[in-house]
Amino acid sequence: MRRKLVAGNWKMNGSTGSIRELLQGILGGAAEVAAVELAVFPPFVYLGAVEQQLSGSAVIWGAQNMCDQGSGAYTGEVSGSMLNDFHCTYVIVGHSERRTLYGESDQVVAQKFAAARKVGVKPILCVGETLDERERGVTEAVVGRQLKAVLDLEGIGSFADAVIAYEPVWAIGTGRTATSGQAQEVHAFIRAKLAELDPALANKVRILYGGSVKGSNAAELLAMPDIDGGLVGGASLDAKDFLAIAKAGC
Ligand code: 13P
Which residues belong to the active site? Predict the structure, then answer.
């Protein structure tokens, strides 16, 4: 049985005050959704404050990105060992906004995945096709290629501690959610790809759906057999909305 994970990717949002309030709200309702693993992903600069507020609670935290290098002359970057200093459980790698706005290739994403594992931070690998790719019927080819880059570098065993997030780019921040059927189809494809290499492990890997998840559509999505949680953007900035999504996964 895979425990569901509901993860809030705050992207570049929040302030010291708003984050304190948001976490108070989440902590207030966390006990009611204890069946689900809850995680938040603040911007780097707030990790210390988030750690302080969440330490000892059931809510865990992680980072939205990291550098593929260990240390050195990489101005503006943050390493995996720095994330460890703030006791991050997870790090998101290969979010579509990193891939499209900051030019991260499949290879760089795979190197980030490897760098995270090296320091014991669990990677959440994001994959997903653009609208153009979906309309051209190459969704599986794209997702398969993104997955293969990591499998080639790190091997199937590396997914034992990793999470995958399927985020169709056309559903991110658009209010346009993939139907539960569309999402399930790609999730099943991802699991089948892993199962070709290790069926037992494939059965254990959590695959999250991301893209305009909200309280009103979460129950249907999270009820699908291969959807093991959500990677939530906009709705994770409101404690009530975020908890409603988690409740749908209980
Ligand atoms: P939205 O939930 O705002 O569509 O964002 C999804 C996402 O990109 C989470 O990583």
Answer: 95, 167
Fold type of domain 5-248: TIM Barrel (3.20.20)
CA-126 nearest atom, ligand 1: 10
Q: Which residues line ligand 1 (CB under 6 A)?
A: 9, 95, 167, 172-173, 210-213, 231-235
The CA angle 10-15-21, to the nearest 5 degrees, is: 85
Per-residue model confidence as pLDDT tens digits over 30-77: 999 999 999 999 999 999 999 999 999 999 999 999 999 999 999 999
Confidence (pTM): 0.97
Cα of 82 from ligand 1 centre, angstroms? 25
Interval 78-102: pLDDT, tens: 999 999 999 999 999 999 999 999 9
Chain centre to alpha carbon of residue 63: 10
